[in-house]
Specification:
5-stranded parallel sheet, 14 helices, 12 strands, binds 6-O-phosphono-beta-D-glucopyranose, transferase
Length: about 375
């Protein structure tokens, strides 16, 4: 089943052009520049009444929800919040009948997430789930939802489920946006960008040899910082989590500009920083932040837009991703970071598909 891949994680990273295609399949409504879902079980009228969206999830799914928050805010202009499922359940978080409540889970079996879902149901609110595993407990207990259709994910570190979650969240936000004030043209632009993703991911996968070179620069470190701003902040968090999970190298994700308020104290020649820095809003400020790290002799890797020579000159190595729509760019930016974690772990001889102390789905609280 592994074919030419040594590990499931690498196989699943390479499946992403197809899994993204599968997440989009049948869900685009070109004539209306919108999206459609078979199992949401909510009418357009009900969705127009929504005033707020709340997501609850754990781990990588929680990071996907953080991007979902951006998508909902940017496309639907609705306030959105992201909760750790394990916290939500015990904190009496306010919900009301104009709140759309989602849980996200690859496995559909995570006890903390299931607990959050049951708590919302107990309080009488309809629950929606974004789940990969068909027929899982969360999928069965939710009132409606969306499947990722990413196929079984075997590697403990989640990869293809994450990018599919992002695609589904973008589609949901598009749908909610088009029921409000998002223009037809903006909707069409996003759809075109989503349809380009499989080919663009293919191009990112082709830089794997460069990522391997970057992994050699990281492997001696004991700690690393991952920095990104706006939509790339959740990508920085996810990049850091991947590295921690499978290479046991300590890593922290921070919003780029927050670095100077504390983490900059960690910078030294042995502590690499990984900037998620594709071109776009606030790029000049990010370049300034990179210079601050350089001035303290910190090694710097960056995920940047292909052809961004200014960035490339400033860093030890740039991993290029194609130019893309601002909302799909983060989906591309996470792929080199998945590969980076994989190759650091491989160089360290770690058990990549079965990292120590982790389970694919944690069914205890
Ligand atoms: C963790 C896994 O315990 O559960 C993570 O180790 C995962 O990789 C998290 O992201 C949430 O899992 P799920 O299946 O609910 O998305």
């Amino acid at each position: 089943e592994l074919g030419r891949f040594e590990h499931y994680m690498r196989k699943e990273i390479h499946e992403q052009p197809n899994t993204v295609r599968d997440a989009l399949r049948g869900r685009l409504r070109l004539a209306e520049a919108s999206a459609q879902f078979g199992g949401l079980n909510l009418t357009a009228r009900q969705l127009r009444r929504v005033r707020r969206v709340v997501f609850a999830a754990c781990g990588t799914s929680w990071h996907a929800a953080l991007l979902g928050e951006h998508y909902i805010e940017k496309l639907a202009h609705l306030p959105a919040e992201v909760e750790y499922a394990s916290e939500f359940r015990y904190r009496n978080a306010p919900l009301d009948d104009q709140t759309l409540f989602f849980v996200l889970s690859q496995s559909g079996e995570t006890a903390d997430t299931l607990g959050a879902l049951r708590e919302a149901r107990r309080r009488g609110f309809p629950t929606l789930a974004i789940v990969n595993t068909v027929g899982s407990t969360i999928a069965r207990e939710a009132d409606g939802g969306v499947y990722l259709h990413a196929g079984p994910e075997i590697g403990v570190a989640s990869t293809k489920a994450f990018t599919s979650q992002l695609v589904v969240l973008a589609l949901l936000a598009l749908h909610l946006g088009r029921l409000r004030h998002l223009s037809y043209d903006e909707g069409r632009r996003l759809i075109a960008a989503l349809e380009e993703l499989p080919d663009q991911i293919e191009r990112v996968l082709a830089i794997e040899p460069q990522v391997e070179e970057a992994a050699h620069r990281m492997v001696q470190a004991t700690s690393a910082l991952y920095l990104g701003r706006d939509l790339n902040f959740p990508i920085a968090l996810e990049g850091a989590l991947k590295l921690k999970e499978i290479s046991y190298l300590h890593a922290e994700g921070y919003p780029t500009a927050e670095m100077k308020h504390g983490p900059i104290a960690l910078i030294d020649p042995a502590t690499p920083s990984v900037f998620v820095a594709p071109r776009g809003g606030l790029h000049a400020k990010t370049l300034g932040n990179i210079e601050e790290v350089r001035a303290r002799k910190g090694p710097v890797l960056a995920v940047g837009t292909q052809g961004d020579d200014q960035l490339a000159r400033l860093v030890d190595q740039m991993l290029p991703i194609p130019e893309a729509h601002p909302l799909t760019q983060p989906i591309l930016a996470c792929v080199p970071l998945q590969l980076l974690a994989y190759h650091v772990a491989r160089l360290k001889g770690c058990d990549i598909d079965k990292p120590r102390n982790l389970a694919k789905s944690v069914t205890v609280e």
